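Hi R.,

Here's the chain you asked about this morning:
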Amino acid sequence: MVHQRIEPGPGQESVWDYPRPPRLEDSEKRIKVVFGGVTIAYTTRAKRVLETSHPPVYYIPPEDIRTEHLELAEGGRSFCEWKGVARYYDLATDERRERRAAWFYPSPVPAYASLRDYVAFYPSLMDGCWVDGEKVEAQEGDFYGGWVTSEVIGPFKGAPGTRGW
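And the predicted structure, written out as C-alpha cells:
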C-alpha cells in the first residue's frame, strides 16, 4: 500500500513533515486524560514526540498525574530504536481497570533525557483525552498510541497495511 501525503490546511501540520529520528518538544497546550471516571492527568507542561507518519504522542510529567491510579505492569517492556526501553503502567480506578494502558521511559537515551518518567497514555484505552479542549481520536492500531486532532493531517501509520511505511 502506498501512502499519499494530504496537504495541510491553515493551522494544520502534516505528519509527513515530522522528522526521523523523532523531535521532542515542550507543549503548553492543555492536556487532559480521563480514565474510569477520574481525571488521571491534567497539564500545560507536556512534551510531545513528533515522528514521520505518526500523530503526536503527548507525555505528561508525573507531578501532573494522579499516580495512585498507576501500577507498574508486570513484565511490561518494549524497545524504541530512538528513545530506549519503555516500561508500562496498568491503570485502575473504582470503575475500571486496564492493563498496559500507559508507558514511560525510566532511563531514555541521552537525546531524550528530558522525557524521563513522563507518562504517555493510549487514547484508545481511556474514557477520553483532550488537547486544548478538543477530544482526540486514537491512532489506528494498538502499538503507537498517537493522538489525532483536527490540526494533524495524515495519512497515519498504524492501520493495517501500513507497517512498511
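The mean pLDDT is 92.

Let me know if you need anything else.
M.
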